[in-house]
Each structure stands twice: as structure tokens, then as C-alpha cells.
Specification:
Layout lengths: L28 E2 L11 E2 L10 H11 L6 H17 L3 H4 L4 H4 L19 E5 L9 H5 L5 E7 H13 L4 H9 L2 E2 L2 H9 L5 E7 L9 H8 L5 E5 L11 H13 L37 H17 L4 E6 L2 H6 L11 E4 L4 H14 L6 E6 L1 H4 L4 H10 L4 E6 L39 H6 L5 E5 L4 H13 L4 E6 L3 H4 L6 H10 L6 E3 L7 H4 E2 L11 E2 L5 E2 L1 H5 L17 H20 L4
Parallel strand pairs: 8-9, 8-10, 10-11, 11-13, 12-13
Antiparallel strand pairs: 1-2, 3-7, 4-6, 5-6, 12-14, 14-15, 16-17
Bound molecules: iron/sulfur cluster (SF4) (3 copies).
The site of one iron/sulfur cluster (SF4) has 13 residues, from helix 12 and helix 18.
Length: 596
């Protein structure tokens, strides 16, 4: 099985009897004859023979034990034996302790076959005639479950014909596959004008990875295309009698048999097209994040941009404990194709400093080290480690997954929480009306460190987000990208709301966009750009009908602020104070950027 699952997705049902596992065998070693072992008898390499000096055993371990862990054999074994056993729920009973787990290793991409197809009752369906090929849905999906492709029309025709002919009902298969391809100006007419063969643009949904959040449907609707709709998963579809999941299984198997989008059909200026790249899918889906999770989208976009631009071996991740490490490393499911390690909340930047040094020693200066961490890891307990790393000048990048709350531990307030925000440590009651302190502005604090790249962005602002990642990757020193990450349960928002709420957070000045790049000049005003925010010289942005979009407009739309509004919508003094505080923060940014 390939790590990405391309061309080899496992069955939805447990299937026939499991293949016999080929154990990773450690051959016995023969000790030199000694008084304790006169015959020099064979012993397990990991066992210290009676009477053998501890020091002698350690020396021998160092030279013999490592090569005995055959990584290739282990990965093969893992994918054919261990992962299916976990999927069938019998691993604990049937398998001995895992030699990889003893070393804290999970092979790459093993989450590709993790099956969520029975999780949600609905799945997105594609209406090709309405699609313009904007790729917004493909970028927005937190689970790598909706995939795009552009291929020359002749290739599509040839592939559909060959694949359909191999199916039990070729006519049904062919009709179904054709429904996945759209004729678009972007991939057909523009290339035609450039003298290239027009391409068809295809959208496919992987039923195994899709959690039914409907985020893809929501973003397509917001853009006015409505080329995706949620449909029920049924046992027999009206048109063909096929089960919905069987149809999706067959069609995604076809998608995985296709070659990648040729580079000449990717639009370099439309950064959403990065997701069409052959190395982009370095976060393969199958992670245990909540449906619609904003953190997961930010991570997969970071991985896509770095691997696609700098190569598949160009990065490693140090992940501070938090939601991202729990959903990103639930044994035996690893959604990453990049080297990844987990450290505690408080020291991920320090661990990254060590890895940076070691990689530099080994001649890997061009490899990117990315640190991932949430509010606790970056705003709070790990803040000193982040500040120290930034002050060191080391070439390390950080992605802050800013959920404004401790999501993983159940929703306690962090210093990134907004004033008045209702959390597990700042309830709305008689005495206390939500969080009594204003939000800490990590971005402004980091700017004060001087020679550091800093960005505040959201995955919903696709070009801004990718530019920030690209600039961080090329900045010769520390770079910190703070990404707004909607958290469904803790923000009190719907599963399909990540993009909508991130956009509103920016429009309402709750979370302004900015980039600070020391390469742009010597002064803060030259370095700081607020481009991407609406009405950047004004206090508040306005809708076309003149309605002001202020912080209250944002707060009214999320459950975490609900108790601040009376039955008639009257705001509490506390949320009005946050409104003023957010405006003051925006004005400070305007002032720093030379706009006031
Ligand atoms: S968001 Fe809608 S229009 Fe854009 S690529 Fe997806 S389906 Fe097509
Ligand atoms: S419904 Fe959610 S998980 Fe499924 S493809 Fe759409 S965005 Fe991805
Ligand atoms: S709790 Fe929030 S941050 Fe954590 S996985 Fe769920 S949505 Fe994502």
C-alpha cells in the first residue's frame, strides 16, 4: 500500500481473513566465550547475558541493535497487519507488543485507510455544470477528503473508457465518472488560448475520509456557485440502484488511478492551485479531528505549500501537545508524510532548536523545521520557549493554531481568549461575566523581538495564508505564522462554519490580518502590511448596504459569546468593552503600519 493510499484504498468492511503478519525478526547474536557464557551461546541481541558487563552490552547494542530494525519491512508489515487489525478491533488480543511503538514510531501516512465512511449520514455530491474550478472546496476541507484534478481532455476520455470497461457494470461506471468532470474557463479555455489541449477539471470525494462537515458545500455556496450539495448515503440510489458508498468507493478508486495534474495546468498566481500539486497532499486525511476543525485545515495547507514548493523531503514538524498531536498521532494512524515528533506543551521551540542544529550539522540547512502549537503551547506555558527561540535568530518556523481556548483539555480560557469569552475557566455567572482580561496580542509581542517574520492570517484567506507560509519558508531566521483556527465545540459554531467565521473574525477586527517582514525595510511601518483587511484606513468595515461590521457583529454569531446578548440583542457592558479593546488593537496596528 502506498502511504497516500493512491490506487490501494482498503475495503470499508473488515474483509476476508487477515494476512499473516511477517514478524520483524531480530536474529540471535553469538557472544564471545566468557566465564559467564563459556560456549558463547546465542542470545537475543537486546538481552544482557548473565555476567556480561553493562558497558560492554551497551557498546554492542549501539553497533548491532539499530540495523536490526528494518524500517522498510516494518512499514510493509504495519500496513498489511497492524493497521487492519486495529480497524477490526482485535490488535490488542492478537498481536504482540509492537517494536515500532516501543521506539515511539508510527510509519508515515498510515491514516490513509482509516475509515470514517459510517460517521456521517450525508456526503457532498458534485454538480459539474456549476463548477468554475476555483479549488476553494479542496483547500477548505480539513480531512483531505475532497480532491481536485485537471487533466487533458483526451487523457480523461481514455482513462474513463479503460476504467469503466474493468467494472462489473461499465455503462453505470462510465456515466458516474463523467459526472465528476467540469468544463471550466480556467482549465479548458485559458489553456486553449495558450495553444495547449484543454483540460477537464475533476472533483472527487473520498468516502473513507469525509466526515460530512459540509464545509466544502458552504464555501462553494458563499462564492455563489452551489456546485456541491449534501446528499444522504442510501443503500440504493434512485437512478441506478447502487449504494451511495459503493458509488463513491468506485469513483475514488478511479481518481487514485489517475496521474497527477500536469504542472502546465496549474495556475501559479492562483495559490489555491497548490493543492493540485503532486507533493501537496502530505497530510493524507484520516486524522481524528472533529468534523470541520479549523486547525486541521491550517496544518494541511502548511504542509501542502511547503512540500509542493520545496520538495517532499523539505520539512519536519515538532508538534507541541494539544489537539493537533492527539488527532495527528492516534496510534496506529499517522496522517503525515513528513517527519513529525511530539514534545510537551512548554518546549516545542526548544526541541526544534536542537533539531535545527543537528540538521545543520548533517548538511540539511535547507530543510524547514516547523513547530506547531496551540494557545497553551505558544501564548501561555510555552511562551518563554517561543520567545527564546525567536531571540536566538535560528531558522525555524512556527505555526500557532490560535483557537482562543484550550481546545484539547475541554475549553478552558487561554490568554488568547477574547475579553468576555465564556469558557470553562471563565463562566458567565453572577460575579463573572466571561473572561475578565483582554486578549494577549502575540503578534505585536513578537514584532517587538525585531528580526523575525510574523504573520497573522487564516486558512479562509487562501492567498494571504499561502503567501505567509511561503514568506516564512524563505525568511532566513525565525518566522511565526499565527493562524485563526475555528474550533466547533469551543466556539459554539456549526461544523460547516470554519471559513465563514474566520472571514467574519477578520472583517470585524476581532482578528486582523497582517504580515511583518524585516526584509521590506528598516522601519516598522515599512515592514508591517495590513493588506488583506477590508477598509484598512477606517475603524470598521461596512457591508455594501452600509451596515457596520464591528466586533459585536462577530460576537453575536458565536455560542461562546451568546450570554452577552439579551433577548432583544442588548449587549452587556463587558462585550462592549471588548468591542472598544478590539478597535484599539486595530488602531495600534494601523499606527504601526503608518496608516494613521
Ligand atoms: S468550490 Fe465549488 S466551484 Fe470551486 S472548485 Fe469547489 S465545487 Fe467547484
Ligand atoms: S463534507 Fe467536510 S470532510 Fe467531507 S469533503 Fe466536504 S469539507 Fe471534507
Ligand atoms: S476540539 Fe476544536 S481544535 Fe480540537 S479537534 Fe475539535 S474542532 Fe479541532
Amino acid at each position: 500500500m502506498s502511504p497516500t493510499g493512491r490506487g490501494s484504498r482498503g475495503p470499508v468492511d473488515p474483509g476476508p481473513a487477515r494476512p499473516r503478519r511477517t514478524p520483524v525478526v531480530r536474529p540471535p547474536r553469538r557472544l564471545a566465550a566468557s566465564p559467564a557464557n563459556p560456549a558463547g551461546s546465542a542470545v537475543n541481541v537486546l538481552a544482557k547475558a548473565p555476567g556480561e558487563l553493562k558497558e560492554a552490552h551497551e557498546v554492542e547494542l549501539a553497533t548491532t541493535a539499530r540495523p536490526l530494525f528494518d524500517v522498510d519491512a516494518y512499514v510493509e508489515d504495519f500496513n498489511t497487519s497492524i493497521v487492519p487489525a486495529y480497524r477490526r478491533g482485535v490488535a490488542d488480543a492478537e498481536w504482540p507488543a509492537d517494536v515500532g511503538l516501543a521506539r515511539s514510531i508510527i510509519p508515515p501516512g498510515t491514516a490513509a485507510t482509516r475509515d470514517f465512511s459510517r460517521l456521517a449520514p450525508q456526503i457532498p455530491d458534485f454538480i459539474a455544470e456549476r463548477c468554475v474550478g476555483c479549488m476553494t472546496c479542496v483547500n477548505a476541507c480539513p480531512d483531505t477528503a475532497i480532491l481536485g484534478i485537471a487533466l487533458p481532455e483526451s487523457v480523461v476520455e481514455e482513462r474513463i473508457a479503460a476504467f469503466a470497461a474493468s467494472q462489473p457494470e461499465p455503462a453505470v461506471a462510465e456515466a458516474s465518472l463523467r459526472r465528476h468532470f467540469a468544463h471550466t474557463t480556467k482549465y479548458a479555455e485559458v489553456p486553449r488560448k495558450q495553444g495547449k489541449e484543454p483540460a477537464k477539471f475533476g472533483i472527487f470525494v473520498d468516502p473513507v475520509h469525509c466526515k460530512g462537515c459540509a464545509e466544502c458545500v458552504a464555501v462553494c455556496h458563499e462564492l455563489g456557485y452551489d456546485a456541491l450539495v449534501m446528499i444522504d448515503k442510501v443503500e440504493a440510489e434512485a437512478e441506478t440502484g447502487e449504494a451511495t458508498l459503493d458509488r463513491y468507493d468506485r469513483d475514488i478508486a478511479f481518481f487514485r488511478s489517475l496521474p497527477p495534474t500536469p504542472p502546465e495546468y496549474r495556475n501559479e498566481r492562483a495559490l489555491a492551485d497548490l493543492m493540485l500539486g503532486e507533493h501537496a497532499l502530505g497530510y493524507v486525511g484520516g486524522a481524528g479531528s472533529c468534523a470541520g476543525c479549523g486547525e486541521a485545515t491550517a496544518i494541511r495547507m502548511l504542509v501542502a505549500a511547503t512540500r509542493q514548493i520545496h520538495g517532499p523531503d523539505s520539512m519536519g514538524i515538532v508538534a507541541a501537545t494539544g489537539c493537533n498531536t492527539v488527532f495527528g498521532s492516534t496510534y496506529p494512524f499517522n496522517p503525515f508524510l513528513v517527519p513529525w515528533t511530539n514534545s510537551l506543551f512548554e518546549n516545542a521551540p526548544a526541541v526544534a532548536l536542537g533539531i535545527r542544529e543537528r540538521w545543520n550539522q548533517a548538511g540539511h540547512e535547507d530543510r524547514k523545521v516547523w513547530v506547531l502549537g496551540g494557545d497553551g503551547a505558544m501564548y501561555d506555558i510555552g511562551f518563554q520557549s517561543l520567545s527564546r527561540m525567536v531571540a536566538s535568530g535560528a531558522d525555524i518556523n512556527v505555526l500557532v493554531l490560535d483557537t482562543q481556548v484550550y481546545s484539547n483539555t475541554g475549553g478552558q480560557a487561554s490568554t488568547a481568549s477574547f475579553g468576555g469569552q465564556i469558557t470553562k475557566l471563565s463562566f458567565y455567572g453572577k460575579e463573572l461575566h466571561g473572561r475578565p482580561e483582554p486578549r494577549k496580542e502575540l503578534g505585536r509581542i513578537l514584532i517587538a523581538h525585531g528580526n523575525v517574520y510574523v504573520a497573522q492570517t487564516t486558512p479562509a484567506h487562501i492567498n494571504h495564508f499561502y503567501r505567509a507560509i511561503m514568506e516564512a519558508n524563505t525568511f532566513p531566521g525565525p518566522a511565526v505564522v499565527i493562524a485563526y483556527a475555528p474550533c466547533m465545540p469551543e466556539h459554539g459554531i456549526a461544523d460547516d462554519a470554519a471559513t465563514r467565521q474566520a472571514k467574519l473574525a477578520v472583517e470585524s477586527r476581532a482578528f486582523p490580518l497582517f504580515t511583518y517582514d524585516p526584509r521590506r525595510g528598516a522601519s516598522i511601518a515599512e515592514r508591517l502590511s495590513l493588506t488583506g483587511n477590508p477598509a484598512i484606513r477606517e475603524d470598521w468595515a461596512k457591508l455594501p448596504n452600509g451596515t457596520i461590521v464591528d466586533f459585536l457583529a462577530f460576537a453575536r454569531s458565536e455560542g461562546r459569546f451568546a450570554q452577552h446578548f439579551g433577548p432583544d440583542g442588548t449587549p452587556t457592558p463587558e462585550i462592549l468593552a471588548t468591542q472598544e479593546e478590539r478597535l484599539a488593537n486595530w488602531r495600534t496596528l494601523q499606527e504601526l503600519a503608518g496608516l494613521r
